[in-house]
Amino acid sequence: MLGGISIWQLLIVLAILILIFGTKKFKNLGSDLGGAVKGFKEAVNKEGEKEDADVAQSKVIEGESSKDNKSV
């Protein structure tokens, strides 16, 4: 499991982290990490939408330029 790390080793590490940071900071760390992941996903989605819009716009521009060439 996980490159030779057992579940017991993970539980021991988790218990040590809770002892060091406390449950409140551990909760805050989890919520901060979740917020960061959510922000990253939103940024990736916005970038994908922007690229889709750029591709659609370039197709429209290419279509207009080919119409202009036909009428000349």
Describe the protein's architecture and organization.
It is found in: Cell inner membrane; Cell membrane. Belongs to the TatA/E family. The protein is mainly alpha-helical and 72 residues long. The protein has one domain (22-72). Helix content is 90%, strand content 0%. It has one helix spanning 7-71. The chain starts with 6 loop residues before the first helix and ends with a helix.
Estimate nothing, just give the exact number of structural domains: 1
What percentage of amino acids are in beta strands?
under 5%
Shape category: elongated
Succession of helices and strands: H
Span between termini: 69 Å
Oligomer: single chain
Number of E strands = 0
What number is the mean pLDDT? Answer: 77
* Annotation field: number of helices: 1
- Helicity range: over 70%
Q: Report low-confidence residues grouped into runs of 5 or more.
A: 65-69
Cα-atom radius of gyration: 26 Å
- What's the main sheet like? none
Given helix and strand content, the structural type is mainly alpha
Outline of the structure:
With 72 residues, this protein is mostly helical. The chain is 90% helix and 0% strand. It holds the Pfam family TatA_B_E.
Write the layout of secondary structure elements.
Elements: H1 7-71
Region (Disordered): 45-72
Biased composition (Basic and acidic residues): 61-72
Protein name: Sec-independent protein translocase protein TatA
Describe this protein with a few key phrases:
single chain, 72 residues, mainly alpha, 1 helix, 90% helix, elongated
